[in-house]
Specification:
four-stranded mixed beta sheet, alpha/beta, 17 helices
Length: 360
């Protein structure tokens, strides 16, 4: 029997495509469509509607073939929509479901609701968001915790409202979640001490700032006062202290890094960002000096091939110039594109890594 011909019930029941329809197999979507003569519609194999009687079913190789035969698309499974749209809707629905759930649903539950196998849905979710469902849920809990603390909620209340089952889990991972203790974060960083200094290099002014955990900011610019104001905006309630004589070693190391970016920085870093940003920044540190990668390349390396734009935003949010080498990321065609501290500086850094000297 060829696709689109009128079948007998026995022919349909013995067709392997009918087995896919009975199983509502999402993996078969796109490989064929089936129509139902009693309703005048055509569907995907995974359609959740009640299964038709085999005698009413015809198979079609393409949507166009089904529509030429006079059938209209099903409103439930939307066979006329692109698969990517279906995937995006499934991921968005899962995100809404996780946001409303008191506890993070297991992957198997999320996948079953979306009509995919757990492994396939995990891949779809990661491609769309850059994170696994579990990591996305953890990032949302962390965001709710930060919001609650910033609103002045009691620490225990903020932890509970964010969806953490145990306060001890927050304190165990406080560096990853908040970058400081919940109490310090609630007070807007009040009491946190950040030392800083501004030096000069061949690319202009350079600011370096350190928390008790390590270097938390490196910035380049033309106006030293503007760099300090940006630091104040980022840590509005922290105690910002100009570095003393001992801090000269830090600023000297940062200046040396700018002059010779391929050498790296042998000082601890205090990296604060979302889970996705940290994954991107970690991938950037693995780009060899003297080479470049595109935003799409980085998206693939973190197993989020559709997240090129999100990678670009993470690069733009990089708080540690040169130490996290976002200057090594370019457009797919090789163009330098933007750079938080100026495209001219990006070009100069790449030339230095390529061994072309320190000329601007």
């Amino acid at each position: 029997m060829t696709a689109g011909t009128s079948p007998r019930a026995a022919d349909t029941e013995h067709d392997p495509r009918w087995a896919a329809v009975l199983a509502r197999d999402a993996a078969a979507d796109g490989s064929f469509f089936y129509s139902v003569s009693s309703t005048g519609i055509y569907c995907r194999p995974s359609c959740p509607a009640r299964r038709p009687r085999p005698v009413h079913v015809r198979f079609h190789a393409t949507r166009a073939e089904a529509e030429r035969a006079g059938f209209r698309p099903c409103r439930r499974c939307r066979p006329d929509a692109a698969p990517a749209d279906d995937h995006a809707r499934a991921v968005a629905a899962a995100c809404r479901f996780m946001e409303q759930a008191e506890e993070t649903p297991p992957l198997a539950v999320l996948a079953a609701r979306a009509g995919f196998s757990p492994s396939h849905f995990r891949r779809l979710f990661r491609a769309a968001t850059g994170l696994t469902p579990a990591a996305w849920a953890a990032a949302q809990r962390a965001a709710r915790l930060r919001d609650g603390l910033e609103r002045g909620e009691a620490i225990a209340t903020a932890i509970a409202n964010a969806g953490f089952g145990s306060g001890s889990r927050v304190y165990e991972k406080t560096d990853q979640i908040l970058g400081m203790s919940p109490g310090t974060y609630r007070s807007g960083g009040t009491g946190a001490v950040i030392r800083f200094a501004v030096g000069e290099c061949s690319l202009g002014s350079v600011l370096a700032a350190c928390s008790e955990r390590g270097i938390c900011a490196i910035a380049l610019g033309d106006d030293p006062d503007a760099l300090v104001r940006e630091l104040q905006d980022r840590f509005p309630r922290a105690d910002l202290c100009p570095g003393d004589a001992d801090f000269d070693r830090v600023i000297a190391s940062v200046v040396a890094l700018v002059e010779a970016p391929a050498t790296g920085l042998a000082l601890p870093l205090d990296i604060r960002g979302t889970a996705f940003q940290r994954r991107v920044w970690q991938a950037l540190t693995k780009i060899p000096p003297g080479t470049t990668a595109s935003y799409t390349d980085i998206a693939r390396r973190i197993n989020a091939p559709c997240a090129g734009r999100a990678v670009a935003r993470a690069c733009a949010a990089n708080p540690l110039a040169v130490a996290i080498p976002c200057h090594r990321v370019v457009r797919r065609n090789g163009d330098l594109s933007g750079y938080r501290w100026g495209v001219d500086r990006k070009c100069a850094l790449l030339r230095r890594e390529a061994g072309e000297g320190n000329n601007n």
